[in-house]
Structures are given as C-alpha cells and as structure tokens.
Amino acid sequence: MSVDAEALQDLIDKEAIRTLISAYCNAADRHDHVKMRSLYHEDAIDDHGAMSSGPAMDFIDRLPEIQASMEILHHNVTTINIAIDGDYAEGEVYLLALHRVKGPDGPFDVLVGGRYFDKYERRDGKWKFAHRAIVADWANIHSPSIVDLNHPFLTGAHIGKPGLADPSYDFFRLLGRGA
C-alpha cells in the first residue's frame, strides 16, 4: 500500500486546525488569556459583533472585562468543515456555547447555537487564526438561570470553574494553563 503524500499532509493540516479550534474553546472557558493570545497571529482579526470587532489582540486584551460577569462558559464544537490551499485555510465551525452571566437581577443563561467563520494561515510551520467571526444562528435565554450545580445529583462531583480554580489544573500534567 502506497501512501499519498498530499492526502497525508492534508490530514495532518486538518488535525492541526482542529486542535487549534479545540484549544480556543478551552482557552475561552478557562479564561486563559495567555493561551488565547498564542492561538492568533499578531495581525489577526476577531469579530465578536458588538462585544469586540477588530484586531484579535485588542479583543484578548478586553477579555478580562468581557468575561468578568460570566460565571460559566462552555463552548462545544460540532460540525467542522475545513478547506486548505497551501498555507491558507478556511473553516466553518458549528458551535453550542452556554454562558451563565451575573445580571443585575441575578444570573441568567444564554445558550447560543452558531458558527465560526475562520481563516487560518500557516506561518513558520504553525497554523493560527488569521480572522475569526462568530455568527449566531439561534439563542435560548433563561432568566433566571436554570443551571443548578447544587442539585443532589451532583453531590461529590468536581465542579468546573473559570481560571485557576478549575479542577483540571490539579488533574492534568500536560494540559495545563497556557498549554
């Protein structure tokens, strides 16, 4: 059986991009701004609508303020469509993202179903975001929040938290902060 070098390289590149996409979700959910910064090229653009639109590094600089009211962030990617042309690639990435937000009248939940429109570039052998835009296809809002982490069903379970308080930092050796 002969190996098709071009098909193998395509597979390697797509896996590198899928790893990048997953790393973004982890960085967002854990409020890991160092890791988030490492996923974008310095001149990249990020379009999160009214939240932030422009240079990705400006968006990342604003993340502590943006995420301050978010008690829970939980990004999940589903369908990933990637097309590659040399050192340039595009991706349409479907996502489900739950946000539990502290509001003036108590916490509320926002579940967004949408897509990321991505442009990736490989520079110095590494794939990173060159441009990322979020598209909301639907949203489900619950006010007040219906998230109940104190339910008896969860007794004794580890509970995820943003930042260094998340139990993953004590559990993993290879998947640490900024990694």
Short characterization:
InterPro entries: NTF2-like_dom_sf (IPR032710), SnoaL-like (IPR037401). By secondary structure, the chain is an alpha+beta fold.
Describe the overall structure:
There is one protein chain. The protein is 26% helix and 44% strand. It has helices spanning 5-29, 33-38, 56-67, 168-171; strands at residues 40-47, 53-55, 70-85, 88-103, 106-123, 126-142. It has a 6-stranded mixed sheet with strand order 2-1-6-5-4-3. Strand 5 and strand 6 form a beta hairpin. The longest helix is centred in the first third of the chain and has 25 residues, at 5-29. The mean pLDDT is 93.
Strand order of the largest sheet: 2-1-6-5-4-3
Kindly give the count of domains: 1
The residue fraction in helices comes out at: 25-40%
Poorly predicted sequence stretches spanning 5 or more consecutive residues: none
The N- to C-terminal Cα distance equals 37 Å
The largest sheet, given as strand count, sense and whether it forms a barrel, is:
6 strands, mixed
Pairing-aware structural class of the strands and helices?
alpha+beta
How much beta, percentage-wise? 35-45%
Number of distinct helices: 4
Q: Find the CATH topology.
A: Nuclear Transport Factor 2, Chain: A
Number of strands: 6
Query: Gyration radius, to the nearest Å?
Result: 18 Å
CATH architecture: Roll
- The run of helices and strands is HHEEHEEEEH
Overall mean confidence score, pLDDT: 93
